[in-house]
Write a structure and sequence with these properties.
alpha/beta, about 45% helix, 12 strands, elongated, about 20% strand, 9 helices, about 260 residues
Length: about 260
């Protein structure tokens, strides 16, 4: 770096660099920042010799342009941090500048996550059922499809909130609700004389499938509702299974002993 620049370590693997005197009008600041970033990439790409072994490192850089008229150190660091995580998402070893659109997306995500917490507490979910028919057109079961009926957001489709639930860990509570609601629906159909052979398939997320409480949650639900385990089917993806084949096979065997079926979705 230049003599007028500042370099500081603010964490185990996080550094802050302040580039000063990059021009009075700011028009070439991004270009000069890219030049500095290129030098950093080049320096850190060199191999490190540690105990007779060579190691290589990569760096993700997030940058924000400081406006001296309203500069705030906490806000500037926050913006650079947001840009850095965008650089990591882009494949690492790259530079990204802070964009207000990034902040807007993060604020929106935080708002939806907060609403999702309330949805779980206030039971705002609904299950829709897609019929499964045999070659003669007779209904042999259905697939449970979750929808979120939010007072503020309206009807939210799973593609708009399931990934967020996965990232935040809320998918465990959401998945538990789906299994309970599906079992209650099976029992309700049975009590109404709509067929003892009706089955319902539910989609299972990787985090839910591999959670230590997964089997116990199913057992508790079956016991509470009185549903025959053969009426409950679990849809999983191929990618879920190959993530840990041995663990997946063990869980599937436990589900089979219960009477449930696992379908490759």
């Amino acid at each position: 770096m230049r003599i007028e620049d500042t370099v500081a370590c603010i964490g185990g693997d996080e550094f802050v660099i302040i580039l000063q005197n990059l021009g009075s009008d700011g028009t070439d600041v991004p270009a000069q920042t890219r030049v500095a970033a290129t030098k950093i990439f080049s320096a850190l790409e060199e191999p490190y010799a540690l105990k007779h072994h060579e190691f290589f490192s990569t760096v993700s850089i997030g940058a924000t342009i400081i406006d001296s008229s309203n500069a705030n150190s906490d806000e500037m660091l926050k913006q650079a941090d947001i840009a850095m995580y965008q650089a990591k998402k882009s494949g690492r070893n790259t530079l990204r500048f802070f964009d207000p659109v990034m902040q807007a997306a993060i604020d929106k995500r935080a708002s939806i996550e907060h609403a999702l917490h309330n949805a779980i507490e206030e039971n705002q979910f609904q299950l829709y059922y897609q019929k499964h028919v045999d070659d003669k057109g007779a209904v042999v079961g259905s697939e449970a499809l979750i929808r979120w009926k939010s007072p503020s957001l309206g009807l939210v489709l799973p593609g708009d909130f399931i990934p967020l639930a996965e990232d935040s860990g809320l998918i465990l509570s959401v998945g538990r609700w789906v299994i309970n609601a599906a079992c209650e629906q099976i029992q309700s159909c049975r009590e109404q004389g709509l067929g003892d052979e009706v089955s319902v398939a539910v989609n299972i997320s990787p985090k839910q499938f591999y959670h230590p409480q997964f089997i116990d949650d199913i057992l508790e639900c079956l016991k509470r509702t009185g549903v025959d385990a053969r009426r409950l089917k679990f849809e999983v993806t191929e990618s879920l299974v190959i993530r840990d084949i041995d663990a997946a096979v063990d869980i599937m065997r436990k589900l089979k002993r219960l009477g449930g079926k696992v379908l490759d979705g």
